[in-house]
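Example record used in the benchmark description.
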Amino acid sequence: MKALVTGASSGIGKDIAIYLSKLGYDLILVSRDINKLKETAEEIKTNVVLYPADLSRKENCFKLYDNFKNEDIDILVNNAGFGLFGNTWELDIDKELKMIDLNIVAVHILTKLFLKDMVEKDKGYILNVASSAGFLAGPILNTYYATKNYVTKWTMGIYEELRKVKSNVHVSCLCPGPVNTNFNKVAGGSFNMKALDSKYVARYGIDKMLKRKLIIVPGITVKLGLFFNRFISNRMSLKIVYRIQKKKIEKGE
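Model output (structure tokens):
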């Protein structure tokens, strides 16, 4: 059994890699930071290959696939991504475009290429790591929210396509709320509600994926928040999300 995990140098990706190793999977771990990948590998008990790559450059996504397309990948985890806090007109456009390339384009390329192989073999799992933000609009974290909406809805569409042709391939979307990771340091803010443990989210996500669940939302607080959001107006939802993101920035200052 073999799994490929992107963004495996820290946070959820690292903990997913470690948990998959405990389940017996050999691993291909991808991240820009080879030194942090080596730290992850120290906690892996199965066979592991380290592949340093910047997946915000789409040519590197194609190279990654070409390098491992014959490895009979059983599980693909698209976890690499980041966010940026701030009003849309204030953010650096180059950083935003890099975020779009990593959060959307890389996920699209890798999912599509490995999915085609899995469909031909009629087996395999793909876990796309999105966010509870994938169901909302996100002022002050706007582009990040939009990227996660793409990942969430796109994964859902693939799920139905696979179901209609009775494929044994399964796709899932992991949609956590706040998690104790390096996300806020990169984005420039701080959580104002209790964050879930990354190890818990990783284990929960993989376990639910293997049970063929489509949308995976760890934590009762986030589940309830998304449920009640269905019953309020878009303007009210925007006000609530704005207030939450604003407090993150103020707490991070």
